[in-house]
Amino acid sequence: MTNQLPIAVIGAGMSGIACARMLHQHNVPFRVIDRGRVVGGRMASRRIRESGTAFDGHITDIGASYFTVQDPDFATVVNLWIDTGVAREWTDAFHVATPAGISGIRTGPMRYSATNGLRSIIEHQAEILPTELIQPSTQVAAVSVQEDHVVVDGEPFSAVAVCVPDPQAKQFIDAALASTHEILNQIDWEAVIAVTAVFEPDTLPKFDGIFVNEHRVLTWIANDGHRRGNEDPVVVAHVHPELAAQYLTDPAGVIPQALDALLPILGLTEHPQWSSAMRWTFAKPTSARPELYSFDEGNRIGLAGDSWAGGPKVEAAWKSGHELGVHLAQWWN
Ligand SMILES: Cc1cc2nc3c(=O)[nH]c(=O)nc-3n(C[C@H](O)[C@H](O)[C@H](O)COP(=O)(O)OP(=O)(O)OC[C@H]3O[C@@H](n4cnc5c(N)ncnc54)[C@H](O)[C@@H]3O)c2cc1C
Q1: Is 169 helix (H, G, I), strand (E, B) or coil?
Q2: Ligand 1 site, CB within 6 A
Q3: Whose CA is nearest to atom 5 of ligand 1?
Q4: CA-to-CA distance for 64 and 53, rounded, in angstroms?
Q5: For residues 246-271, average pLDDT
Q6: Engineered SS bond to 305: which of 15, 171, 206, 266, CB 3.0-4.6 Å?
Q7: Is the dihedral angle over the CA atoms 191, 113, 43, 68 positive or is it negative?
Q8: What is the pLDDT of residues 216-238, one digit of tens each?
Q9: How many domains is the chain built from?
């Protein structure tokens, strides 16, 4: 019976969609389930609306800022995204700052962005998957194991690929599955609040991104106009995890502190015309396992995402989900 049932992929972020693509390519029946209305997960992009500024319509990256490429397999995939115009090289140089202001510029690996926001990359990845096999707006509440199958919210599947942050997986995986919970308890996760601010045109200094060091309020500032490839004066600032954790029930409440920290670093005195805040309760794991994924043949539960494959980053999420998909396809066949 078991191998006639589809595989459930929980999560339609980078790891879940990479996993589903492998299952699809190997003709393994599957269904992707996500609580969000759209695919993308933490590669989240939002269009500015009703801001009262000239920049309504600007697509802002309010989750991941960019991605880097090391793995040769990921490089092949990214080159295809670049060839099709989905992804673009952004920059290899970011400024560094302290609370007093910008202190220098540091060159590093190429950082990639997407013309239409990072979420468009996941949409592009999902294009080969039959739309009826992606089930949005469905929050999984219970995953348990029976003799030869896994039950997801009352529905039987042959196996499950759990492609969500560990703390979210803990909420729906049966507490009786002690070995799985042991894995999910290995790593702590931290919060981030992303504050988007729209300034007057031609007021921003020239920068792509700024790593903010030794600051209790901000860790990172992105010039979202440059990231998008235009000059829209839109900035996204990430609030320090310790401060973000205090504002999870009222993310907008941190905006005044974030702006008070942002303006002197950018050398500005005028407040932005518009601002908003996005909360990520489980933004990033504080460390990651070197293993690419886990699959327990005994309970048929696979785990993937950016707390695997050396994460925490987009590339790790892709690698982890992709390799779990390859493993599940072999297991199935
Ligand atoms: C603020 C921020 C900044 C970041 N900056 C960078 C960066 O600059 N560079 C970089 O490489 N990475 C960055 N990251 C990390 C990057 O976004 C992640 O590594 C990557 O997107 C993780 O993909 P994933 O598929 O593992 O998880 P996710 O993208 O989180 O996908 C999980 C999916 O599971 C769904 N889900 C959760 N619970 C349930 C449930 N109960 N039922 C159904 N669905 C559920 C969610 O809706 C989500 O779509 C950043 C992340 C954040 C939040």
Answers
A1: helix
A2: 10-16, 33-36, 41-43, 63-67, 139-140, 163-165, 168, 172, 192, 194, 238, 280, 283-284, 305-306, 311-314, 317
A3: 64
A4: 24
A5: 97
A6: 15
A7: negative
A8: 999 999 999 999 999 999 999 99
A9: 2
